[in-house]
Structure formats: structure tokens, C-alpha cells
Design goal:
Elements lengths: L1 H7 L6 H7 L4 E6 L5 H10 L3 E5 L9 H12 L2 E5 L6 H8 L4 E4 L5 H11 L23 H11 L1 E6 L2 H5 L1 H6 L5 E4 L1 H7 L9 H17 L2 E4 L4 H9 L4 E6 H16 L6
Parallel strand pairs: 1-2, 1-8, 2-3, 3-4, 4-5, 5-6, 6-7, 7-8
Helix pairs in contact: 3-4
């Protein structure tokens, strides 16, 4: 009987946090259109560290998280869900469905940062509600005290910096305890700063530097969107530890264009 309990009580550790804690960086691939578990398994087997599963911009049902999280655990890749900002139950339910991490869009103040920590962490670190029967608790098979400790230690919380207001308060936001990583969203940030679509504008470069400095000062990691390996390396050189490696929709579009280009000029004899 004891062996059976040990077998089941194996709550999944975070691959991303393990790498970050050793000083390495994490690679992230986005699932924004393809929501089937097989694609999550492919990303895991390919070697990525984290899947970015987007609920903010997509009409994706939260019910898809259960199956995708199973595939992620099988393929040893973390599942990070960018949530909809609908209230306290959103991060809680995503974690219970098996997400290893939560990304919160448009965090604009230290007060808001503290609120998300409260909703994503169990006491004494926060005020997350306890159910204990989801995927994150081995479907109720986990030892509850161990589960609570594991949840606080092995799930990560990321706050996106995408607004002028957030940039103006970045030191105060970075000082809030209980979350793990700041993430610069350059698309919305350049809109907020009045330089739309100018991703190499000095204001955006300065924003990355400002977030990097605040993160370093307060012991947080940080990351950003990186559309090429060269940009990713430049951000890593600035201290970033989370880089993005593309998304399903763009891979499909690029593959489709390539396929058509290969076949559109064949000759007929």
C-alpha cells in the first residue's frame, strides 16, 4: 500500500523553474490556434521548456486545459496559461487544471501585482482557494500538506509589463514578493508609448533596460517577445531569462507559403 501511495504522490515539478534556478534561460513556444494535446506533446518532445497557451486573445474554452496539461506532463514540458482577467477564480482554475504557470496581461501597479499573488498562492504566501482534487493535486491522490507546499514552490506567476503606467511604476511592481518573472509585451507597450509597431524604437529599448534593472534589483527574472534568435541573444545579454521561439499560427503560415512557393512555378509539358 505504501508503494502505491508513493507512486501516486508525485506532483509534477516545473521544468522552467528548475532551469531558472540554475541560472539558465527558458524557451517558450506558443499555442494560440492549435489546441489539441498531440501538438503539445510535439512541442515537448522537440525540446521546448514552456508552452504559452493563450486565453487572453482567443475564444478557447478553459475545458481544453485538462487534456493539454496531461500531454504536457507526458512530454515533460511546462504549460503556462495567459489568462483572461476575469477575477480570482481564473488563475486558481487554470492551476487546478494542470497549468505549471500563469501569465497575467497588463499588470499596471504594485497593488494589482499583490492581488495576483494573493489569488495564485496558497497561504501564507497568498489566499488561493483550496480544492485539492485537480490535476495539480494528482486528482486528489496527493498528500494535502505536501501538495500546498509543492504548489507554492513549483508553479510560477508572470506579470506582463505592457503599459506606460506599469513602466512608470516598475520599481514598485518589481518589489512585490510572491511572483517570479516580469515579461515585457512590446506590441502593446509601443502602442501605449506612442510609437506603434516601432519595436526597435529607443523608447522600447529603454523600457527593456528599465525592466531589466528593476528585476535585477528585486531578485526577479524577466523576459520578452523575441521574434528571432538574434533578438533573443540580445535580450539574454541584457539579463532576460525567458525568450519566445514562435507560435503555431506563424509556423503554419510560413510552412504554407513555403509549400506554395515550392510548387507554384512547375512547368506543364
Amino acid at each position: 500500500m505504501q508503494r502505491d501511495l508513493l507512486f501516486y504522490n508525485h506532483m509534477t515539478p516545473s521544468k522552467a523553474l528548475a532551469k531558472l534556478r540554475t541560472g539558465s534561460y527558458i524557451t517558450t513556444a506558443a499555442m494560440t490556434r492549435i489546441t489539441e494535446p498531440w501538438f503539445a506533446e510535439i512541442l515537448g518532445r522537440t525540446g521546448f521548456d514552456v508552452i504559452w497557451y493563450d486565453l487572453e486573445h482567443r475564444a478557447i474554452s478553459a475545458n481544453t486545459i485538462d487534456a493539454v496539461s496531461l500531454a504536457c506532463r507526458h512530454a515533460q514540458i511546462d504549460l503556462m496559461v495567459r489568462i483572461r482577467k476575469t477575477g480570482y477564480n481564473e488563475p486558481m482554475q487554470m492551476l487546478e487544471c494542470g497549468a505549471n504557470g500563469i501569465m497575467v496581461p497588463h499588470c499596471c501597479s504594485a497593488a494589482e501585482a499583490r492581488q495576483w499573488v494573493d489569488w495564485a498562492r496558497f497561504p501564507p504566501e497568498g489566499r488561493r482557494g483550496l480544492d485539492g482534487s485537480g490535476a495539480d493535486a494528482d486528482w486528489g491522490l496527493a498528500d494535502m500538506p505536501a501538495y500546498v507546499c509543492n504548489a507554492n514552490r513549483e508553479t510560477f506567476l508572470i506579470l506582463q509589463i505592457e503599459d506606460r503606467e506599469a513602466l512608470d511604476q516598475i520599481d514598485e511592481i518589481a518589489a512585490v514578493p510572491g511572483y517570479d518573472l516580469l515579461f515585457v509585451g512590446p506590441a502593446d507597450l509601443c502602442m501605449s508609448l506612442g510609437v506603434p509597431f516601432q519595436f526597435d524604437h529607443p523608447l522600447i529599448e529603454a523600457a527593456h533596460d528599465k525592466v531589466a534593472a528593476a528585476a535585477a534589483k528585486h531578485g526577479k527574472w524577466w523576459g520578452t517577445i523575441t521574434s528571432t534568435a538574434a533578438i533573443a541573444q540580445r535580450m539574454l545579454d541584457k539579463g532576460a531569462r525567458m525568450v519566445t521561439c514562435g507560435a503555431d499560427q506563424w509556423w503554419l503560415m510560413r510552412g504554407a507559403k513555403q509549400a506554395y512557393g515550392d510548387y507554384c512555378n512547375l512547368s506543364v509539358r
